[in-house]
Please model this.
Amino acid sequence: MIRTLITRWRQGHRTIRYPDALAVLPERFRGLPAIDSAQCPNGCRECVDACPTGAVSVEGGHVRVHLGRCLFCPECAQACPHGAIGFTTDHRLAVSDPRDLLTDGREYRLARQLDEASMRLFGRSLRLRQVSAGGCAGCEVETNVLGTVVFDLGRFGIQFVASPRHADGLLVTGPVTRNMAAALEKTYAAIPTPRIVIVVGACAISGGPYRGHPEALDGAASVGPAVLYVPGCPPHPLTILDGLLRLLGRIGS
Model:
């Protein structure tokens, strides 16, 4: 016992200080894309052709990336011969409006606080039922790790619960396979109203790499509009945490 106590004392405070202190991620982390359309000559579509999910497009002379489809793989950056596209280490990616997922590098509108009525209900205590609707376990692992001592999601009044009857909202991961569609809809229906929906990962937003597959429904749109969209494949725990805190007004613009 004494050895355990000494080891714990040496470890010190293990919970990250975010959002009170900025998070510093390693250089290998691929976050918010950096796009410089001025470097892209007319007619070049090498980044578009390289993208495995159709997330990259060129419109009106501007390169655009749909982060709801993006897998954050380096294929587009490696294919571009002009250095017009790359990735930063900025983990802040969650948005409130799915239209904001389309970025050309000039502006990216992050998630906004819930409306006043919803804040009165969920602002201090938010209980979520998480459903893996055919996911590969990538997003599920990143979501689960938020409950560890490092992130300690409970200190913000946010908790994952086992029963939808105890939940305020639904958090969906996975592309929503046909086998999981009924279970997802029943879980959503069992959550007392008013309820919110949060979608995490490219699969839940758009189908991800399974987009267009006959056994996938291309995301969680079937259960209704979401209040938070967290892109990534999978998103970093800090990306999920940042989105949740912005949704509850714990982080400003």
